[in-house]
Request: fold
Amino acid sequence: MNIIVETDRLIIREFEEDDVLSLYKIESNPRIIEFIPWNKLSTLKDCRRQINKFMNGYKRYKLNSWAVVEKETNNVIGVTQLVYSDKIKGVEIGTKILPEYWSMGYASELSKAVVHYGLYELGIDEITAVTDIRNAGAIKSLINMGMKLKRYGYYKGTESAFYSLKKQTINSF
Ligand SMILES: CC(C)(COP(=O)(O)OP(=O)(O)OC[C@H]1O[C@@H](n2cnc3c(N)ncnc32)[C@H](O)[C@@H]1OP(=O)(O)O)[C@@H](O)C(=O)NCCC(=O)NCCS
Reply:
C-alpha cells in the first residue's frame, strides 16, 4: 500500500487493482455525480481502465487520483485528486465521498491534508477548487479547510465558484 497522506481518520493512498468495485460504487452514484455531470466512468470496464491509468500514472506523475480509505473500517469511501487543469491554468483539487459518509467532516479533513501535500511536498504555489454554486456540501467543506473564494464564473457550462489556497496563506498548518 502506497500512502500519499494520512489524517486522524483517513488514509489517502494510491489506487490498486482490487479497488475497481469501490471506484464503480463511487462513480456510478447519482448523488455524487449530480454536480459533476461530465463523469464518464459508468461501467466496471471504465473503472478498470481508469484504475490502470492511475496506476501507470504513479510512475510518471506526481499529480494523480487517490483512494480515500476510512481507517476504522478499511473501506474505500471516496476519491480525491490533484490534477493540472488547462481551464484554470493550474492545479485543481477534486473530491468525491460516498453519500453514507457525508457530513462527517471527511472532505474537509482530507482536503486540508491533500492541499498541504500539494503545496509543501510537491511545491505547487496555488491550489484551486471549482464547484457548482449549488453544491452546498462542497462549498462548506472548502471553507472549512481554509480555502478563500476567488471569483465566480462559468466552468464546463455551469455557474461555479472558484476557491483557492496559496502557499503563504497557510503557514499555520
Ligand atoms: C462535496 C463532498 C465531497 C463533501 O463531503 P463531506 O465529507 O460531506 O464534507 P464535510 O463533512 O467536510 O462537509 C462539509 C460541510 O458541508 C455539509 N454538507 C455536506 N453535504 C451537504 C449537502 N449535500 N448539502 C448541504 N450541506 C452539506 C456538512 O454537513 C458539513 O457542514 P458543517 O461544516 O456545518 O459540519 C461530498 O458531498 C461529495 O462527495 N459530493 C459529490 C461530489 C462532489 O460534488 N464533489 C465536489 C466537486 S467540487
Remarks:
- The first strand starts at residue 3 and ends at 6.
